[in-house]
Specification:
alpha/beta, Rossmann fold, 2 domains, four-stranded parallel beta sheet, Aspartate racemase, isomerase, Asp/Glu_race
């Protein structure tokens, strides 16, 4: 089993979910007392969030580059970033280490393509929804991506950063997200991409009228395939 380096802490609840799912996946695939070989660097999220809010992508990248290099120095054989938004600087992180980089948007776009869906909704942080670093892999595969309505995006971002990254789950926020999902389905989305690693803590398949793509689950499955030699 290859040693996976996980760059986490953005936020910690998503990293904990990655760790749980990776171990459950190894257990399901190998049985016995097998567990996931994982090296985690859990960074302090506040300086990264400050850099994001200031639009200082170089500062964000530098923090994550240092984290990725420490994982390589610790013996990791491949790395992933346990967050969607921070893939805004994925190219810089990947270029800074001599390791395979498991990209969450590439894995998700491949999964959507496999589901033969040509139009999907994307729900994520404001940064992810405002830039093309996440949607490009979909466009390259001929998949149209639609977003929540402009007036809904601020509340989606607030719930992610003020509640979900802290592990806070509120029924009112679930209702809000359910309405957003239904709205995108009503505009023709054949599936919904949950492009925030904490969003699956709030909503599940029962909350959406169309199939959902949980990016955390997809990323973990990609990582398991890589760790166990399927890819």
């Amino acid at each position: 089993m290859r040693l996976l380096g996980v760059l986490g802490g953005m936020g910690w609840s998503a990293t904990a979910e990655y760790y749980r799912r990776l171990n459950e996946g190894v257990d399901a695939r190998l049985g016995g007392l097998h567990s996931a070989r994982v090296l985690i660097n859990s960074v302090d999220f506040q300086p990264i969030d400050d850099a994001e809010n200031a639009g200082d992508w170089d500062a964000m990248a530098q923090i994550l580059i240092e984290g990725a290099r420490s994982l390589q120095a610790g013996g990791a054989e491949g790395i992933l970033v346990a967050a969607n938004t921070m893939h805004a600087v994925a190219d810089q992180i990947s270029a800074s280490v001599d390791l395979p980089f498991l990209h969450i948007a590439e894995a998700t776009a491949t999964a959507v393509q496999g589901a033969r869906q040509r139009k999907v909704g994307l729900i994520a942080t404001a940064t992810t929804m405002a830039h093309d670093f996440y949607t490009s892999p979909f466009q390259e595969r001929g998949i149209e991506v639609i977003l929540p309505r402009q007036e809904e995006r601020g509340e989606v971002d607030r719930v992610i950063y003020e509640e979900l990254v802290h592990g806070i789950i509120k029924d009112g926020s679930r209702k809000t997200f359910r309405q957003v999902l239904q709205g995108m389905a009503g505009r023709g989305a054949e599936g919904i991409v949950l492009a925030g690693t904490e969003i699956s803590l709030l909503v599940d398949e029962d909350d959406s009228p169309v199939p959902m793509h949980d990016t955390t689950e997809i990323h973990v499955e990609q990582a398991l395939d890589w760790m166990l030699g399927s890819h």
